[in-house]
Amino acid sequence: MINYSLKNKKIASFITKGVQKLIWVIGNNAFLFIVIFIVVDIIIGEFLFYHYIVSVQSKNVITGESFIHFQSDAYQSVRKDWQNRDILFNKAGTTIYNDPFQ
Asked: Where is 94: in which H helix or E strand?
């Protein structure tokens, strides 16, 4: 049991010394590590952009057979609704109410 505790202490001290050295190396070369992290971040971002945006759009290219057709009936109904709303909006300012305080 004593050997295990000594072995664990040696391993723990070895790991802590390694981590301390790593921290000192990163601290002494902070600018270099920041530049490396930024470049890695840009590379990962470009990969994700290509994977989820560019490759998906290239797979979903519209063929000549399935064009979007303009639905004039739906357009006319929406246009009529907008005209009715515009008329009601313009009427709202012309109504004269009686002043209850006179």
From this structure: none
